[in-house]
Amino acid sequence: MAPLGRAVLFLLLAALPGFLGFHPGAGVSFLLVLALSWAFLRLEGRGLPSLGLRLNGRWGLDLLQGVGLGLALMCLMALMLRVLGGFHWESNPGFRIHHPIAGAGIFALVALHEECLFRGYPFQRLVETWGPWAAQLGLALLFTLAHWRNPGLTGGTRPWATLNIGLAALLLGLCYLKTRSLALPIGLHLGWNWAQGNLLGFPVSGTSFAQGPWRPVLQASPSWLTGGAFGLEASALCTLVCLGSILLLVRWKGRPPVS
């Protein structure tokens, strides 16, 4: 079977539990995608390290750098919105010390699942078939559609959130393409979500389970600026930050993976 056919079959099998009405948590979903990746790679005579999961010191360093980048980008958005008077923080009485730790675990599983699915085997086979940018656009579309049923994606937030989720997918895809490793995109995804929810207190892609020491109180500003109930990912400020980050990564020469 050609790489395109294998990529399509992989995506269909990964989506099968949802079609059957079974919606496992992020941990089980990650294990299912990892098992599928292992099976498809075995048929090609490859192992999981070829997916970008070569767990060595360099991989760990890239992971930490990705976490730091995600934290920095999300804090930059919040700072810009705060300077523009879009919100103020108030103390969160429901916050407990274990919330950031639990949030890091949950968001790590989410990042592992979504990056192995959307920047893993299917994406990499489409890169071989279509080239990097066509593969980027195809998987960015799927990544966006996968978030379309999230809470808060309504009204004026829908077009901005849709655009920004697609841009975030391109940014994450570039992280893989520039390093040929999943460490940087997994770290960026983790740091982005954790900072947004457990540090800054905003909803994360419409979900509000993450608890931070403060919670933002939105001012009388339009939802295209604040992101509304969806969070900062539905703000025009996120568009600017994502576009700037994409341009910087395009200019970055990257680095080859360590064998």
**Most strands sheet:** 2 strands, antiparallel
Helicity level, as a percent range? 55-70%
What pattern of helices and strands is seen along the backbone? HHHEHHHHHEHH
Query: Helical region count?
Result: 10
End-to-end gap: 27 Å
Walk across the major sheet and give the strand order: 1-2
Helix/strand structural class: mainly alpha
Description:
- Helices cover 64% and strands 4% of the residues.
- It has 259 residues and is mostly helical.
- The protein has one domain (3-251).
- It has a two-stranded antiparallel sheet.
- α1 runs antiparallel to α5, α3 packs parallel to α8 (183-199) and α5 (121-130) packs antiparallel against α6 (132-146).
- The mean pLDDT is 93.
Pick out its properties.
10 helices; mainly alpha; two-stranded antiparallel sheet; 259 residues
Summarize the structure.
With about 260 residues, this protein is mainly alpha-helical. The chain has helices at about 5-20, 25-45, 55-85, 100-120, 120-130, 130-145, 155-180, 185-200, 225, 235-250, and strands at about 85-90, 215-220. A two-stranded antiparallel ribbon has the order 1-2.
Topology, pairings included?
Blueprint: H1 3-19, H2 26-43, H3 57-83, E1 87-91, H4 99-118, H5 121-130, H6 132-146, H7 157-179, H8 183-199, E2 214-218, H9 223-226, H10 236-251
Antiparallel strand pairs: 1-2
Helix pairs in contact: 1-2, 1-5, 2-4, 3-8, 3-10, 4-8, 5-6, 6-7, 7-8, 7-10
